[in-house]
Amino acid sequence: MCQKVCFFSMNKLNNFIKAHKDPIARGAKRNVVYKINCNQCEASYVGQTGRNLDTRISEHKKHISSKSSSHSVITDHRINLGHDFDWDNCEILDVERFYNKRLIAEMIHINRQKKGLNLQTDTDALSRTYTDILNKI
């Protein structure tokens, strides 16, 4: 009968030496679901983008001055009520690399808003079963 004793240390070198990456600035983050709040009321808008968040926010800001006949819900809110949005404090709700998962996350966050500006068609693909479960959480 051979018996061996093994010793090992819980204090490994990689527990002490950490090589962290620099954090990515909020506006440079990609593949996010985001929320923009209105400055004058409780309304909010939830969207998603695979591009840099700053690029998408900039598009929302500039859309009011475009000659397009169709306005976004954000532009309609700004024109009809004279309100503006808190562009600098846009909240990142979720980060998801895969497009379809990001769309589902967006639908869930749209559904959970209290005073959302998003169109109801934005959540049509979300099953009623999931909606009921999410409302109970």
Automatic annotation (TrEMBL):
Gene3D superfamilies: GIY-YIG endonuclease
Annotated Pfam families: GIY-YIG
Taxonomic superkingdom: Eukaryota
InterPro entries for the chain: GIY-YIG_endonuc, GIY-YIG_endonuc_sf
Domain GIY-YIG: 29-117
Protein name, per record: GIY-YIG domain-containing protein
